[in-house]
Amino acid sequence: MTDEPPAITARELTKAFDGEPVVDGIDLTVEQGSVYGFLGPNGAGKTTTMRMLTTLTAPTSGDAAILDTSITDRDGVRSHVGYLPEEPPVFDELTGREQLRYFAQLRDLPPEPTADRIETWLDRFDLTDDADRRLDDYSKGMRQKIGLIQALLHEPEVVFLDEPTSGLDPRAARTVINAINALTDNGQTVFLSTHILSVVEELADSVGVLYEGELVAEGAPDELTAAAEAGADSTLEDVFLSVTTESSTATTAVADSNDGEVAGEPDAAATER
């Protein structure tokens, strides 16, 4: 056994908008070298959680750390993480290769080995022939590939991926899945948010299900499917549907017991993933 810190920890992590919690006191521990599958319906708080863990959004309360570095230390966390949001942050007027070189300069990466790494990733994602085209001519899938290379270029210890296979054809999606496997083989940690449950079943060492800002189920995929036991062929889809339906039913029952009290609309909170 080693004394290595967890890759990710969160304690009572909360984010509220206009008094309405979008993420409501979640606790997480993700070990180094693992894939954590983060599931939940739209509006559950997944993207807000990832933005807090990557220091892009400050929590309302609670705390979290990346490799024992508190998310209040933005520069410290930044050195450990790579992040692919659902919409990759790229500049349309740049070519694919220029975008990656620009990002490398922002990260102050050494030019020669980084240039080699860029060419390796471009080749791996079948982008070499298109690398000198402007990004505004790229398809959604091609832009997604550039965003993923950008998130991995500095070889971060912890990688946050928000829908990394979005817009990809099956061959490209398989390349991404293989790349994620290679990351964990290299000791890196992946926090993976996706709606494609088969990807989570294939890759994840542990899974958390977020519903209305609360972590309603967590564990290894086989443990969760066993707990949801709907028969021998129980899947993560069964788990997902079960825990979100149960939570929704419980919430409705509580609301019905409030003697007709009308809840206010959550405004900004409702738009958060």
From TrEMBL:
One of its GO terms (molecular function) is ATP hydrolysis activity. Residues 8-237 form the ABC transporter domain. Residues 248-273 are annotated as: Disordered. InterPro entries: AAA+_ATPase (IPR003593), ABC_transporter-like_ATP-bd (IPR003439), ABC_transporter-like_CS (IPR017871), ABC_Transporter_VariousFunc (IPR051782), P-loop_NTPase (IPR027417). Keywords: ATP-binding, Nucleotide-binding, Transport. CDD domains: ABC_DR_subfamily_A (cd03230). Pfam families: ABC_tran (PF00005). It comes from the Archaea. This is ABC transporter ATP-binding protein. It comes from Halonotius pteroides.
